[in-house]
Specification:
single chain; alpha+beta; three-stranded antiparallel sheet; three-stranded mixed sheet; 6 strands; elongated
Length: about 140
């Protein structure tokens, strides 16, 4: 299996400084700063990138589970909301809320939710985040 690489670069003090985050493939190189992370400044932040990774991993894992169960999806859309908060010794990510909707022929809402919960528990990003509460809302749509 391949190993993936990402990089970060920072210049200056934390509140006044700035940096960039990039990935080996070159498809992402984005600016980040204190303002983009803890306020509403321009640029990205590690939490939204983590959310994108989690949403992508979970969605693909759910598509796999549904396909293997004989119900290939027409579409699945997932949003990940990553919460960051101040803790006594710095900052932490206590929770990620996944909201997913899937158009899946031949399956009922209970079965869709069961497959979604299985994907949440087994996707590699969820497994890497075992110290974070992961909540899921799954909705079957037409």
């Amino acid at each position: 299996m391949p190993e993936r690489t990402a990089q970060a670069h920072w210049e200056g003090p934390v509140k006044e400084g700035h940096g960039w985050i990039g990935v080996e493939s070159g498809v992402l190189e984005a600016q980040y700063s204190f303002d983009s992370r803890f306020e509403n400044g321009k640029g990205t932040n590690p939490e939204e990138l983590l959310g994108a990774a989690h949403a992508g991993c979970f969605t693909m894992a759910l598509a796999l589970a549904l396909t293997e169960a004989g119900h290939p999806p027409i579409r699945i859309a997932t949003t990940a909301r990553v919460t960051i908060e101040k803790a006594a010794d710095g900052f932490r990510i206590p929770r990620i809320d996944l909201q997913t909707e899937g158009a899946v022929p031949g399956i009922d809402a209970a079965a869709f939710e069961q497959h979604a919960n299985g994907a949440k528990a087994q996707c590699p990003v969820s497994l890497a985040l075992t110290g974070t509460e992961i909540r899921l809302t799954a909705k079957l749509v037409d």
